[in-house]
Amino acid sequence: MADGFLEKHQREYEARKAEYLRKRKHLPPVKTKLERPDDEAL
User: How far apart are the C-alpha atoms of 41 and 39, rounded to whole Å?
Assistant: First the structure.
């Protein structure tokens, strides 16, 4: 559970950071894809 929690927060942080840097540099938005494991049972 803790690993998923940390991974989710890391992804959210990276998304906020990318958005901040994009606005700062006046670049077009970057579209992101959801990353899902191949096997949901893992």
Answer: 5
pLDDT tens sequence across 1-42 = 567 889 999 999 999 998 888 888 776 666 777 777 677 665
> Hey, what are 39's tokens?
């096997």
Q: What is the 3-state secondary structure (H, E, C) of 1-42?
A: CHHHHHHHHHHHHHHHHHHHHHHHHCCCCCCCCCCCCCCCCC
CB-CB contact of 15 with 32 (8 Å): yes
8 Å CB contact between 30 and 18: yes
